[in-house]
Structure formats: structure tokens, C-alpha cells
Write a structure and sequence with these properties.
The chain is an all-beta fold. The protein has one domain (2-71). It has strands at residues 2-4, 6-8, 23-26, 28-35, 40-46, 49-58, 64-71.
Length: 78
């Protein structure tokens, strides 16, 4: 799963240009802990590292969701 910093409801600015969206990485999702329309929490792996991937709802202007990726350094991939 490709993860970007944002998942916009509308990915274009008022002038028609595309909004910047930082690429956070490509992850194999091994477990979904929680999933809703604009929120989720997943465990993903990339290489030999394990990550917690949080998706949080954003409301108002530039609404949609934002992602935070945190390495779980105490968890080792088998």
C-alpha cells in the first residue's frame, strides 16, 4: 500500500494545480486494527522493519485524512 502524508477529498488547489503530497513509503499491510471512513490504524512492514500507520480525519478546508507512520523499533519481523 502506498502511503502519502495526506488523502485529500479534493486533491486540487483553487487555481487548478495539484496539492503537494509527501510520499511516506510503500508498506505491506499485515494487520488492520481499526478502519472507518476517514480513520484507520494499521500495522505495516517495509523491508525488515515494522510500522504503525495511523490515519486521522481532517475536517474543514483541505479535508480528508492525514497519515503518520511510526517505526515500532521494539517489534522485530520474523
Amino acid at each position: 500500500m502506498e502511503i502519502h502524508k495526506r488523502n485529500y477529498d479534493n486533491e486540487f488547489n483553487k487555481d487548478g494545480s495539484k496539492k503537494f503530497n509527501e510520499f511516506l513509503g510503500e508498506f505491506d499491510i499485515i494487520e488492520t486494527l481499526f478502519e472507518d471512513s476517514y480513520s484507520s490504524q494499521r500495522i505495516g512492514v517495509a523491508g525488515d522493519k515494522v510500522y504503525l500507520i495511523d490515519e486521522i480525519e481532517v475536517s474543514g478546508y483541505s479535508s480528508g485524512s492525514r497519515f503518520e507512520v511510526k517505526e515500532l523499533s521494539s517489534v522485530k519481523r520474523i
